[in-house]
Design brief:
This is DDE domain-containing protein. The protein is of the alpha+beta class and 124 residues long. It has helices at residues 10-31, 76-89, 95-106; strands spanning 39-48, 51-60, 65-71, 115-116, 119-120. The strands form two sheets. A three-stranded antiparallel sheet has the order 1-2-3, covered by helices on one side. It has a two-stranded antiparallel sheet with strand order 4-5.
């Protein structure tokens, strides 16, 4: 802006960023491509600001990130939070998403006489 003869203070630019960022985010999210049907889940251990954390990432078939999640712990509640968050990010609610999530959610309920290690037993 100085090239055009306008003197603008850095605080003015910051106010513009604060004011217009939500509007830009809304427009960008409106133009975002839909998530494809297949996901690949990745989990890695990385250092962020001197602290080791787990990064859970879901990537669709095209290579776009569906969702990511940072956690200090690698346990079942962290994985469930990640899958709930990723599943809510999909707009199409394809059948494979709920089928894949079913075994994870089933583990949170107590075992019944017809189950072995949280997996349904086939009584044929």
């Amino acid at each position: 802006m100085a090239e055009r003869g306008l003197n603008v203070d850095h605080s003015t630019v910051h106010r513009w960023v604060v004011h217009f960022s939500p509007q830009l985010l809304e427009r960008f999210n409106g133009r975002k491509r839909a998530v494809t049907g297949k996901w690949h889940m990745d989990e890695t251990y990385i250092k962020i600001r001197g602290q080791w954390m787990y990064l859970y990432r879901a990537v669709d078939g095209v290579g776009d990130t569906v969702e990511f999640f940072f956690s200090e712990h690698r346990d079942l509640p962290a994985a469930k939070r990640f899958f709930r968050k990723a599943w809510s990010a999909t707009a199409d609610r394809i059948a494979s998403s709920s089928t894949a999530a079913r075994p994870i959610m089933r583990r949170s309920f107590p075992a019944t006489p017809n189950t072995v290690c949280g997996i349904d037993r086939d009584e044929r």
